[in-house]
From TrEMBL:
Pfam families: Methyltransf_11 (PF08241). Transmembrane segments: none annotated. GO terms for biological process: methylation. It comes from Candidatus Collierbacteria bacterium GW2011_GWC2_43_12. This is Methyltransferase type 11. The keyword Transferase applies. Signal peptide: none annotated. The keyword Methyltransferase applies. GO terms for molecular function: S-adenosylmethionine-dependent methyltransferase activity. Residues 61-109 form the Methyltransferase type domain. Keywords: Methyltransferase, Transferase.
């Protein structure tokens, strides 16, 4: 979870009203992420359930996202934030999200296209906006967008965060409202990194430029 993604989720939350029952898939908050990754406080007036395959902060039910222990049509809102890249069978998780959503229910799903390999406990996939959208054929209305620094058109070509807001049913009016609110709140979403992080980023870009100048390639073995 990053500050820009958290801000975007808050804007979407403010656009959709108060859901009665909320499910967060992949709710365990990683080390040093408690305040940033905890979006439960956005939904204080809702019944909130956090599901994860591991015990930890933010987890109410330990279970696999591939087969969730809930009846069909149980939730008004399902969140799955920065989780699908850690699922070895993400298509099953997405099918379960669709199954447990009530008619007219909303799913907010985010993952990454451009981000380093990170475990928790494993890391399997990256998603283009088109790929993430394709995993939700049962959500009839979908808004897809990305969040990324503006370097070299990364937000268009190689974004960090890819987000799908999907509705189980037709509701283009609500998606238009969400889209407009995201545009209006771009300053809130575009959170600047601390100064020291910017210096680190500049150093990383310079090292990359030098490596590419000399056409240096490396090989890394994972098994």
């Amino acid at each position: 979870m990053t500050k820009p993604l958290r801000a975007a989720v808050e804007v979407i939350k403010d656009s959709i009203g108060i859901p009665r029952k909320v499910l967060e898939v992949g709710s365990r908050q990683a080390y040093n992420q408690n305040e940033l990754a905890d979006v439960r406080d956005f939904f204080e007036k809702s019944t909130y359930v956090g599901l994860d395959m591991q015990e930890g902060p933010g987890v109410d039910i330990v279970a696999s996202g591939n087969s969730m222990p809930f009846p069909d049509k149980s939730f008004d809102l399902v969140l799955c934030l920065e989780t699908l890249e850690h699922a070895d069978k993400p298509w099953l998780v997405c099918a379960e999200i669709e199954r447990v959503l009530r008619p007219k229910g909303i799913a907010i799903v985010s993952s990454q296209q451009n981000f380093p390999i990170h475990k928790h406990p494993s890391d399997y996939f990256r998603y283009t906006p088109f790929g993430l959208k394709s995993l939700f054929p049962g959500l009839q209305s979908k808004l897809v967008f990305s969040i990324s620094p503006p370097f070299d058109d990364e937000v268009k070509l190689n974004p960090q965060h890819v987000i799908v807001v999907g509705i189980k049913g037709e509701n283009e009016k609500l998606l238009k409202k969400i889209k407009n609110n995201l545009k209006k709140n771009i300053q809130k979403i575009s959170v600047h990194k601390p100064y020291t992080h910017r210096i680190h980023e500049i150093g990383r870009l310079l090292r990359r430029a030098v490596s590419e100048l000399f056409f240096r390639q490396e090989i890394e073995f994972f098994s």
